[in-house]
Structure formats: structure tokens, C-alpha cells
Hints:
69% of the residues lie in helices and 0% in strands. 38% of the residues are buried. It is mostly helical and 222 residues long. The radius of gyration is 21 Å and the shape is elongated. The longest helix has 32 residues, at 15-46. The chain crosses the membrane at residues 21-46, 66-87, 99-119, 139-160, 181-208.
Amino acid sequence: MTDMLTAPRRVVSAAPPRRSAARWALAGGVAAGPLFLAAGLAQGFARDGFGFTRNAISQLALGEAGWIQTANFVLTGALLVAGAAGLRTALRGGPGGTWGPALVGVFGVSFWVAGAFPADPGAGFPAGAPETTVMSGHGAVHMAGGMIGYLALCAAFVVLARPLAARGLRGWAVASRVVPVAVLAGFTASAASVLAFTVGAGLGLLWLSAATARLAGAPAAR
């Protein structure tokens, strides 16, 4: 009789809010690369003495207006870390669900390192800087953080090829294994051309955005 008189209880699932948070996090990860590059390009064309064939985008954090690029590093890092969390939810229990997001997270943290430890002046930027770059302690940390971050990103692409393939996106999976080669080629050519480095880094950011968006929109294989 007691059971019959007891009012039915509504069970509220926490899954929808969790999925909504994951979608927002993934959206942040998708936006990170294009926003970073757009801000970098706008500053590069606007600031006196900066040239994409001579200077790295990281050097935009130097000089009076350098705070804009520093904020760009911090915001991009936050969006990438959020995107990594969203990928972890989207890929949970499937191929690449652990290491893919973790490596993307390392890449995001490298942007915070870049913001905290600015690059060294050189190649005439900012105004009055010598042509030859003299390596400092913070400049060395900046370079090491960037190298670790982009190596993690290249490894993430290889790992994320697995869930792309599992969703039937074979072409995307192949491209995700090829893009790291192009990124590393750009970095290797940076000794001869700063622009090659910038193009390689930009390609990595844009492909991460594209792969994240594709994984967010493609249903997992059953």
C-alpha cells in the first residue's frame, strides 16, 4: 500500500548538460586556430617594422602593443585546452579517446608558455632591435615550449586518424597522417625561411580546427 501511495519521482539525467558543455568546448577548439591566425595576420600587417618573411608571429608579443599578442596566446591556449576536454568527451571509450585529447591539451598549454616567456627580438623587430637574435633564457623557454607543443600536435594528428577512420572518414584519416609531415617540413625549412615556419604552424592550427569539427559532427561507429 505504501508503494502505491508514493508519488513517482522524476529522474533528471545529467547527460544533456554534459553534452552541451562538450559541444561548447569543441566549438572553442574549432575556433582557436582561425582566431589566433586572424589576430596574428592583422597585427603583422598593422605594426611598423614587422615582415612575415623576416619575423615570426611570436615576436608580435614584443614592443608597446605586444600585450595584444600575449593575450592572443593566452586566449588560444584556453580555447585549445577546452577543445581537448570536449574531444575527450566526444571520443570517450573509442579509438584515440585518451591520447588524442591529452596531446591536444599539451599543445594548448604550450601557448600559455609562449605567452609567459616571450620570444627574443631580432630581424629588426621591434623597432631598433638588432638584425641578429641573441638567445635569452625566456627566449629559450619560448622555443622549447613551442617545439614540444607542435610535436604533441603532430602526434595528436596521427592518433586522431584512428577515430576519423572508425567513423568512416578514410580520406580525413589519411590526411591526418600526412599533415604532420608538412608541418614538420615547414619547421625544418625555418632555418632558410621564417615564412615556411609560419605556414607550417598555421597549417597545423587549421587542420586541428577542421579535424575537431569533423569529429564533433560525425557519429561514432557502432
